[in-house]
Design a protein that fits this description.
This protein has nine helices and ten strands. It is α/β, with parallel strands linked by helices. α3 packs across α4 and α5 packs parallel to α6. It has a single domain, classed as 3-Layer(aba) Sandwich (Rossmann fold). A six-stranded mixed beta sheet has the order 6-7-8-3-9-10, with helices on both faces. A four-stranded antiparallel beta sheet has the order 2-1-4-5, with helices on one face. The longest helix is centred in the middle third of the chain and has 16 residues. A hairpin with a 2-residue loop joins β1 and β2. It is 32% helix and 24% strand. The termini are far apart.
């Protein structure tokens, strides 16, 4: 009897070079099933390279990487059946409606009961009211939510989100964050790459920092915060963040997706 693999992802000693440029110099981490794992790093740190290796798009030069127990090199077909990958820009057909995009993806997977599957995903990502509108009329947040929904058509146990909120406005980012949290609540393992520290802070169960081709820190938010001594502050006047001001003015809902204008807030002079 085969023992169940506890980790959804296992990465050990991963190395990758492009010519003379060594991007990964021995990357190690594990990701628990049903958790959100954030991989932080600046541009060029190697985040996307890690995702490409885990999704079988690149072969590592050295090291081991497994996805739900399947080796990414030796068992690439099984890995591809277990994952979905969403890149930095929504891969949706803007001419089709939201429903038609989902039904098309279900056809590509040779799935039955496509209409019910599409309806379930539209409801899950709060897109039912926009289901029969062309995607070209969707807001950025709606397109990204549809893109994630399309990634889940085949119900993969692991999803890779490579900088999923790049270029989105604050409201749209919060919409996508809510969708990502819901994925984990329903048991999907999420590996999230991001440059946005707040995104990792808001979403991740564990956070790893990739720098110089290696993981230089890996832990929960509390564990990472404990690496720095706490500051002693006698009095702090907390000003609202720009994001808080923005959301207070425009509201937290998406009632203006149909193009109607939001009310104008006057700023005292």
């Amino acid at each position: 009897m085969t023992a169940q693999v506890l980790e959804a992802l296992h990465v050990e000693g991963l190395e990758k070079a492009y010519g003379d440029l060594r991007v990964l110099r021995g990357v190690d981490f594990d990701v628990a099933r049903g958790s959100i794992f954030a991989l932080l790093g600046s541009n060029g740190a190697g985040k996307t390279t890690v995702v490409k290796i885990l999704s079988t798009l690149l072969k590592p030069d050295a090291g081991i990487a497994t996805v739900v127990g399947h080796d990414v090199v030796e068992q690439a077909a099984q890995v591809r059946e277990s994952i979905s990958l969403t890149g930095q820009f929504a891969a949706v057909d803007e001419i089709l409606t939201g429903r038609e995009n989902l039904v098309l993806m279900a056809r590509l997977w040779h799935l039955s009961d496509r209409a019910r599957l599409a309806d379930d995903l539209l409801a899950r990502f709060q897109l039912t009211e926009a289901a029969d509108r062309r995607v070209g009329t969707y807001s950025g947040g709606m397109r990204r939510r549809l893109d994630i929904a399309m990634s889940l058509v085949a119900d993969p146990p692991v999803i890779f989100l490579d900088e999923p909120t790049t270029g989105l406005d604050p409201e749209a980012r919060i919409e996508v964050w809510s969708s990502i949290r819901e994925l984990a609540r329903q048991g999907t393992t999420v590996l999230l790459t991001t440059q946005y520290l707040e995104e990792a802070e808001q979403l991740a169960d564990r956070i790893a920092i990739l720098h110089g081709g290696r993981i230089i820190a890996n832990g929960t938010l509390a564990e990472l915060q404990a690496l720095l001594p706490p500051a002693t502050v006698e009095y702090v006047k907390k000003e609202p963040t720009l994001e808080e001001v923005f959301l207070a003015i425009v509201g937290s809902g998406r009632g203006d997706d149909d193009g109607s204008a939001a009310s104008t807030a006057e700023v005292p002079r």
